[in-house]
């Protein structure tokens, strides 16, 4: 729900007056009057298209297990060499190879042969790519 009916105070002469909390001033309630089309524009910014799900209470920042999930994220970032501080993110000085990071996270190495799992994968040649994009078909 984008706005409840009890927050709507007045609709008159193409203007809408509603109550809101001003979080810049400790959440004190205030009123605002805007043109009807501006009110509808602001209202529709909160309406999700069909098939979309609001994710406010899902994922990494969901209240349940939030601390554990964030701690795991920090550990994974440390494996990548990224340091998260209170002032921001410090990028790694020397970026580790993605194959080494994959091996640290999962165990198996991307350098091992996927068939025999004993030999090492070696790049023999890199095939040239075409500068031309594939033709667009009628979809």
Describe the model.
- With 139 residues, the chain is α+β, with helices and mostly antiparallel strands.
- It has a domain at 5-44.
- It is 23% helix and 19% strand.
- It has 3 helices and 5 strands; from the N terminus they run E-E-E-H-H-E-E-H.
- It has helices at residues 36-44, 66-79, 98-106, and strands at 8-12, 15-22, 28-35, 83-85, 88-90.
- The strands form 2 sheets. Strands 1-2-3 form a 3-stranded antiparallel β-sheet.
- The chain is elongated, with a radius of gyration of 27 Å.
- The mean pLDDT is 82.
Record keyword descriptors for this entry.
139 residues; alpha+beta; 3-stranded antiparallel beta sheet
Short summary of the structure?
The protein has 139 residues and is an alpha+beta fold.
Architecture blueprint of SSEs:
Elements: E1 8-12, E2 15-22, E3 28-35, H1 36-44, H2 66-79, E4 83-85, E5 88-90, H3 98-106
Antiparallel strand pairs: 1-2, 2-3, 4-5
In whole angstroms, the N-to-C terminal distance is: 37 Å
Please give the number of β-strands: 5
What is the C-alpha radius of gyration, as a whole number of Å?
Answer: 27 Å
How do the strands line up in the largest sheet? 1-2-3
